[in-house]
Amino acid sequence: MSAPVVKGWCPGAHRPMMSGDGLVVRVRPRMARLTAEQVLGLCDAAQRHGNGRLDLTNRANLQLRGVSEQTHRQLLDDLANLDLLDPEPGLESRRNILVQPFYEHGDQTCRLTEILLDRLADLPELPAKFGFAIDTGSNRVLSENSADIRLETGMSGGLILRADGSQTGVCVSEERAIDAALGMARWFARHSSPELRRMRNLVRHTSLPGHWTGKPPGPLATRSEPGFTPKGPLVGAAFGQILALALDDLIRKSGARALRITPWRQILLEGGHSTPAPGFVTRPDDPLLTADACSGAPICPQAQAETQMIARQMAGRIGGSLHVSGCTKGCARQTAASVTLVGRNGRFDLVKRGRAGDEPAMRGLTPEDLLTLTDLT
């Protein structure tokens, strides 16, 4: 079995990625937010130019699937008309910014993000997956999400800048925060290499300047779960997949004025009211909330097995978290899970308390084998 190919970039709008079901086109909403009108327009575009499916990514973006090369240009025009496309492809690829989704309009999270958006052209040349997290609420919510440079609340309540992989950061004022973050990005660009393309890996091999450490980050928030929040209903999407028709219906019936995308396969219906949401995860105890599965075969050309049907069947049988991966890359989950199933030649290898690339405890299991196993964890 040949090793899976690790892509060094993410599919953007200008630069889509070919998959087994057509082009994957990524939309990066500013502030992880789309107005209701933008959501409805995007749902229409997904049905006219793609296969009517949307993916939520762990970077709080949306992906349209099944787009043909012939309709890609028209899709870009539609995204531009919805104000969901950067005219400059280079700037779009740099706009990898996670924001904590419970911000108030005009608060520190918004102010810092808007300044960083205005300063994207000042960034040095960085790897395509390099990104920022702005997590300045009272409690941190993005600590487990992928980012290389973090602006977050410190233990003392002030603002700190922290390199991912470092346990501590440095206090910064709001006025100097973005300049300091750009300086950290330039330091990374000078010291990184093709083998060290993420901050977490770099700081294992290269010491940070001493003045960038010493201040611990603040407390963590509790895990966000489906339910009603002060901002509106929060609902989940199994494996991060949404049917455009279902999302169109949900936006209209909830009366939401906007949609906020989270990096946890959940969407926040800003200003909306609770309403039945068929096709979405609405219960905090739903086992699909702790199950991760990639697109699998035949959608992903590198997948060695179909993933999502077995994930649905197995989710309720696992006492902890479940990850079903079509190959050893483990795209759907980078951290360890209680049980990880890895596709191999139509069957599955079982990893206990590990990641997709770890040594399996059992190999060559059929879906029927998995459904009869009792010693899973």
UniProtKB/TrEMBL annotation:
It comes from the Bacteria. GO terms for molecular function: 4 iron, 4 sulfur cluster binding; metal ion binding; oxidoreductase activity. Keywords: 4Fe-4S, Heme, Iron, Iron-sulfur, Metal-binding, Oxidoreductase. The keyword ATP-binding does not apply. Residues 16-81 form the Nitrite/Sulfite reductase ferredoxin-like domain. The keyword Chaperone does not apply. This is Precorrin-3B synthase. It comes from Sedimentitalea nanhaiensis.
